[in-house]
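Page 42, continued from yesterday. The earlier attempt failed because a stray header line got pasted into the input along with the sequence. Redoing it now with the clean sequence only.
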Amino acid sequence: MRVRWYLRSDNGSEFTATKVREWLSRVGVKALFIEPGSPWENGDVESFNGKLRDELLAREQFDTLLEAKVLIERWRRHDNAVRPHSSLGDRAPAPEAVQPAPLASATPQRAEQVGVGIDPTLT
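This time it went through. Structure tokens are written below.
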């Protein structure tokens, strides 16, 4: 079987386990590991994992699978649509509402070009 996909992860036991590696091989995925002791090679994931752990997992006790699904989804929606991310200029990655650029920073243009007095329907 030809490998078409790769899964890059750290060297944690959950990713290096023999059964996981065998399953990845069966589905055509090759495991690639970052260098031991080099979490900066996977910085985005390390940051996400830390926030998920600190903001949700360390604060909740899930009594049922349904409760875990509901609370994790609530956290995911908040993280993506509400919580400001410093790397995005303190904006959410996928805000629920479109935030127009401040008019003071807009260059002089016709009103239609800056969104003033036009149909606000989003397409």
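Notes: Helices lie at 13-16, 18-26, 43-57, 65-81.
Reminder to self: strip header lines before submitting.
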